[in-house]
Amino acid sequence: MTRFRKRLTLLGSAATLAAGALVPTQLAGAAPASAAASYEWVALGDSYTAGVIPAAGEVFEVPRDGCERTDQSYPQVIDRDLGSLIELTNVSCGAATIEDITFNAQNPIGRHLPPFSEDPDYPFPPVPPQSEAVSPGTDVVTVGVGGNTLGFADMLFTCLQLGSGSGGVDTPCRDELAHTVPDRLTKVSNDYGEMLTALQERAPHAKIVTVGYPTVIPEDTSKCRYDDWQQFASITPGDLDWLRKDVLEPLNKVIEKSAGNHDATFVNLYDSSRQHSVCDSGKWVEGIFTRFPDQLAFVHPNAKGHQNAADHVSAAVLNSIGIG
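Above: the chain sequence. Below: its structure as tokens.
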């Protein structure tokens, strides 16, 4: 749903509330209109939800907690668009695993990714499991997670190392890691189901919206320039094909299947972002660096990618509360 349509929806809601305000108090009921229009939304997730990188905005929390929630990340964009209709609690956190949402106290890393970057405020104190922000009064839960449980960042780093000096030929990363992928996906599936069950127990009446991952690697990997650090640097085209077909696309399918098994909504960001990968001119996901060598992105959505996510997730949120 476009931002324009969302605003029309909100205007309609506002008009309904205003009309209710004209009814005499003795007929209108005890609850004020603003209370009736308020829905509690909790946003959970990893760095693809939190924002994290400078290309996804500024970190707005002072002092920093190391989770790196940014002001152009999709929860914050939706929060501004929906105004007072929905009250947001955003506890998403960079580097979060599924277990960090369900029951782990997480140690945030901020922007500390040696050898690429050092964060002067690292280490950060632990943050509670994200699920603790969900309560019986929660109306909507959105959750975007799974990549860190899969170990995608570690896989990327391994692919960078193995592809270095290869000249862009062969599939050294696939040869090294392919046998580990089925177990990784099984863990994602098991952990995701456990997480959704826990969230439904904490908020029995809440609508749960699961958010998949966008297109990161194009179908045509000839678009990707070998040794370009604003794309995938030393990862070979063959390994990029493997990462797309055998790792990232199956990850989305695991999330979608788990959502279906738990009566949750799945938001597909993959299809809408197919022409906006790291290697496309109009990219919605940054490469290893946004600007080499001083602005690390390590393959995360930029503000345009988060705007696309906001359009799709807001439609699912509004639909879940009956306003879509």
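The chain has one domain: 35-320.
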